[in-house]
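Observation: inputs received (chain + iron/sulfur cluster).
Thought: call the complex predictor directly.
Action: predict_structure
Action Input:
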Amino acid sequence: MLKRRASRPIQVGSVTVGGAGNVIVQSMTKTNTRNAKATLDQITQLADAGCEIIRIAVPDAEAAGALAEIKRNAPIPIIADIHFDHRLAISSMENGVDQVRFNPGNIQNADHVASIVRTAKERSIPLRIGVNAGSLAHERDEGDLASKMSEAALKQIQLLESMDFDLIEVSLKASDVIITIEANKAIAEKMPYPLHIGVTEAGLPKAGSIRSAVGLGTLLYLGIGDTIRVSLTTPDPREEVLAGYEILKSLELRERGPRLVSCPTCGRCEARGFYEIANTVEEQLSKMETPITVAVMGCVVNGPGEAKDADVGLACGKGKGVIFKKGEKVRTVEEPDFLAALMKEVNTL
Ligand code: SF4
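Observation:
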């Protein structure tokens, strides 16, 4: 198990963030927040997909007003995402949200910050100081952006601490992976609060998932990060949740659902329909919750080894394949029966 940075835990509704708890998977709704029903439908889908905390954009007073109904019916804790207008943070808290994220890059007036802190204190609501590289535009040309981001967050932390407030979470995000890593490494050793990490505006699902995996994976391997979001350009934010769990699963920080080991194939693979088999197995596994490992392998080179190491495995050969279960050879099957034989063993584990 990876050693994690010891952070001071906060409570976001029913979910603990930081300390020795799990690394929490978050996402953000893409609906119009003013439409409470559409937003709630999306939150419910996300919660079913494993999302543990949801952030919601609050662009105006009408959106802040809709939070009351959303909060009443949401199955997971809610973070109000606030820019520019401190009054939206206050009304969001009055409407019951579990956390407020505000951006010190665009709420700079100390009195405005003080009024957010006052309400948060009265209601014991944690605040996320969310610094974005893009919001530090005026400082971008002045040298090391990662350090600037860390300094901006530290300045804000000191301001909150001077108001005797410590229910703090911090996030430093950039679309540049290296800046994201450097900024989080810099702040992680300078303060005790939990860190929400993400590569912002990471892109479309394919490239965005990879960029997020590199950025978040590097930080998590260093023990940095108490909660994550994979930011993807997709109408379905469940893709973000799926990618988030894949990152955590690959570092053995979380378990969720089965893991498929499948070989890339090469000139040695003589099994017909191999890709279709692997795709169908993945689709069927995606409906299961048990954290098992299933291997689908193309030939005898690495096939028997990987298939044996998995809970259930198929090592294909020419016209025939061998099914393994818990390290033991179960039977030899004919090519047309590969899929059915493999799934039968999976379903009887
Ligand atoms: S298991 Fe066999 S078919 Fe698959 S990549 Fe390795 S050598 Fe190629």
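Thought: report the result.
Final Answer: The chain has a mean pLDDT of 94. Residues 263-266, 268-269, 297-299, 301-303 surround iron/sulfur cluster (CB under 6 Å).
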